[in-house]
Design goal:
By secondary structure, the chain is an alpha/beta fold. The strands form two sheets. The chain has an eight-stranded mixed sheet, covered by helices on one side. Strands 4-8 form a two-stranded parallel ribbon. The radius of gyration is 24 Å and the shape is globular.
Length: 191
């Protein structure tokens, strides 16, 4: 047997393999735990069963999960299930939980900050018409609780964060989609 001749090419290949081994091990480890990799991504949302939260579906059903920052939607017969990323209230004090329903819908909502919002931030206007600067975005679903809405936002950085004064916010294209799916009377639960 003749001894193996060490060439520059073989040395480079062997060196690259040695250097890449720790990176490949980290990648394999991350693949074993996809939650850590996809945190904040819609793929990381846990699917919900409507039966765990409601007695019946009604005309349509929305579950707002403030923990995972996701909104779950089911149609009246349960054949259409969708999940949307959301913004949620900034603090526990601003978070209302329980059962409510959609009582009104509006394309191009205007915004009137509540007295407590203006107390927290005196720079807020008394009123803001619909438009690009309006924090309610392009569409709004008004809930039976006064001053609580599911609405869009022009500030896409807010989605996936604790950033609202009590409402649930969605990307404008997603609230437009949800708006078309949800009739007045849609039941809503915030958990």
């Amino acid at each position: 047997m003749s001894p193996t001749k060490l060439s520059r090419r073989k040395l480079l290949v062997a060196g690259t393999a040695v250097l890449a081994t720790p990176m490949l091990a980290r990648t394999a480890s991350a693949l074993d735990f996809p939650r850590a990799v996809t945190r904040g991504n819609t793929a990381s949302f846990i699917a919900q069963n409507w039966q765990d939260h409601f007695d019946q579906l009604g005309v349509a059903t929305i579950l707002c999960d403030t923990g995972s920052r996701a909104l779950h939607y089911w149609n009246a017969d349960g054949t259409d299930y969708r999940v949307y990323p959301t913004s949620v209230p900034m603090t526990e004090e601003l978070t209302r939980r329980g059962l409510t329903k959609v009582v009104r819908k509006k394309v191009g909502p205007s915004w009137t900050p509540t007295a407590s919002m203006r107390e927290r931030d005196p720079s807020l206007p008394e009123f803001m018409p619909a438009g690009p600067g309006n924090p309610l975005g392009t569409h709004a679903l008004y809930l039976s609780w006064p001053a609580y809405l599911v609405h869009g936002t022009h500030d896409t950085r807010k989605i996936g964060r604790r950033s609202s004064s009590g409402c649930i916010g969605l990307f404008n294209d997603k609230i437009a989609e949800l708006y078309e799916l949800c009739p007045v009377g849609t039941q809503v639960r915030l958990i």
